[in-house]
Amino acid sequence: xxxxxxxxxxxxxxxxxxxxxxxxxxxxxxxxxxxxxxxxxxxxxxxxxxxxxxxxxxxxxxxxxxxxxxxxxxxxxxxxxxxxxxxxxxxxxxxxxxxxxxxxxxxxxxxxxxxxxxxxxxxxxxxxxxxxxxxxxxxxxxxxxxxxxxxxxxxxxxxxxxxxxxxxxxxxxxxxxxxxxxxxxxxxxxxxxxxxxxxxxxxxxxxxxxxxxxxxxxxxxxxxxxxxxx
Length: 230
What we know:
The protein is mainly α and about 230 residues long. It has helices at about 1-15, 15-40, 45, 50, 60-65, 75-100, 105-125, 130-165, 170-205, 210-230. The chain starts with a helix and ends with a helix. The mean pLDDT is about 90.
């Protein structure tokens, strides 16, 4: 079946592309973190003010702290937030996959952009002594979300690589094979993003303890790792 055989096999087959996708995101995050720590004005080069929602170098430490523990009330408010986040993250993942045919370049750019935003965000909170708290706030859903985006990038890379280096096949045949495998991966990525949206829209709002958030993040990493690679 799809969840017990096709999806994990397709993901496992793309382990090299997944490594490249994750490495690009990680390097961008480290680079952005270092730049923002050196000069806070770099923050605006990675995260637009509209997207930051006031969480920028001009904000007070107290304000930044409070944003990590905002608690929405009511199932409708939480459901609306989860739906918005799922839609937003799905768009990023689909772009990373669909643009892979352009010799991997747009996909690589999206991975770098996503990693840069992550590093800039963590650097801002680390500069106020809130790195631990921000990590819990981010990773409770971020483990699943970032892994899903990484897999979407891997699927995009596989198509771009097939187009650039088709081997003995025609480029059309090579791209079609990569596209079919990538489509299997993306079918599961949508499920992962749905789970991430629930964690971000509900669990992060309802769970206010840092260690509990990080425990869920660690459990998520273990579950996905075992599911796909063991």
